[in-house]
Write a structure and sequence with these properties.
By secondary structure, this protein is mainly beta. It has two domains: 261 residues, Thrombin, subunit H (Beta Barrel), CATH 2.40.10.10; 44 residues, no CATH class. It is 5% helix and 36% strand. The protein contains two helices and 18 strands. A six-stranded antiparallel beta barrel has the order 9-10-11-14-13-12. Strands 2-3-4-7-6-5 form a six-stranded antiparallel β-barrel. The radius of gyration is 24 Å and the shape is globular. It comes from Hippocampus comes. Keywords: Disulfide bond, Hydrolase, Protease, Serine protease, Signal. Pfam families: Trypsin (PF00089).
């Protein structure tokens, strides 16, 4: 069991971040058990209605999506929560006293869709409440990296669940994701995508702000937070998340030196398959007969064209005379 720490004791968040002692996840797409994701926070209106998720990054701050905070109304954060209904003996509630939007947040493109959320007072850490580690600058999450997303968002085509849900997805490289969204929205370096090529697993409405995490060694590291998508769980349209590693300096600037979140560099093994480009060969033949049927000259030109960084087209013009 993790000991309870006094809110008045200076604590090295790195030493405790990303620990989920009750979590031994192997497969996804299911209801989460109590204590599996101790950094998951529920953001609620003063009526008690859930509207967005967030992650606990130290004893006083949450990380969430900027687009969640479109109205200046009282908000409560609830941690240690598994169900939105009934009794939750491990939950702790705090009012929100400050929301800091990223200065370059764009509500149209959803670029830099991140916000820091300050709690009214520190929360204690235990088996059911604890901070997640954050991906540090220079972290690499290559295509195929196994990731987990949690939240109370909608389960298509069913109503929103009352219990915390979890789903396992794989990172989709930004080049491929940009091709998938080419006619819909620009995918920037401040974003990270994840899903299944065949669809069926994804974050959805109501999951905004909730964390996407991957495990490295014994620590869970947050790579992204739910930002937007095109529908939910559609084939070849992955979910899009704000890329946490892009914001280490900005987060550190506000959370203070005495209570910094635990930043960890995530390193992906192997090579990046997202650098591979589909190659298409198009052959064009032209035939010209001369007086000598046994004498044939072949002329060809090779033309290359990069189509939106999604595929390379080689057009070969061949003339025979």
């Amino acid at each position: 069991m993790l000991a309870h720490f006094s809110a008045h004791v200076s604590l090295c968040v790195f030493s405790v971040c990303g620990r989920a002692v009750l979590n031994n996840r192997i497969v996804g797409g299911q209801e989460a058990s109590l204590g599996d994701w101790p950094w998951q926070a529920s953001l609620q209106f003063d009526t008690g209605k859930y509207f967005c998720g967030a992650s606990l990054i130290n004893s006083e701050w949450l990380l969430s999506a900027a687009h969640c905070f479109i109205r200046n109304i009282p908000i409560t954060a609830v941690l240690g929560l598994q169900s939105l209904e009934g009794s939750n003996p491990n939950n702790v509630s705090r009012s929100i006293v400050e929301v800091i939007y990223h200065p370059n947040y764009n509500p149209i493109s959803y670029d830099n869709d991140v916000a820091l959320v300050k709690l009214s007072s520190p929360v204690p850490f235990n088996d059911f409440i604890g901070p997640v580690c954050l991906a540090a600058n220079g972290s690499t999450f290559l295509t195929g990296i196994e990731s987990w997303v949690t939240g109370w968002g909608k389960i298509v085509p069913l109503p929103s669940p009352k219990n915390l849900m979890e789903v396992k997805v794989s990172v989709v490289g930004n080049r491929q994701c940009g091709c998938d969204f080419k006619s819909l929205r620009k995918i920037t370096d401040n974003m990270i995508c994840a899903g299944l090529r065949e669809g069926g697993k994804d974050a959805c409405q109501g999951d905004s702000g909730s964390p996407m995490v991957s495990k490295q060694g014994s620590k869970w590291i947050q790579s992204g937070l739910v930002s937007f998508g095109q529908g939910c769980a559609r084939p070849k349209l992955p979910g899009v998340y704000a890329r946490v590693s892009q914001y280490q300096d900005w987060i550190s600037n506000y959370t203070g030196n005495d209570n910094l979140p635990g930043f960890v560099t995530f390193t992906s093994p192997g090579t990046d398959p997202d650098l591979e480009v589909n190659v298409i060969f198009l052959l064009s033949f032209s035939f010209f007969h001369n007086e000598d049927p046994f004498s044939t000259n072949i002329h060809y030109d090779l033309v290359t064209h990069l189509a939106g960084n999604c595929s390379t087209v080689f057009l070969i013009n061949v003339k025979m005379d």
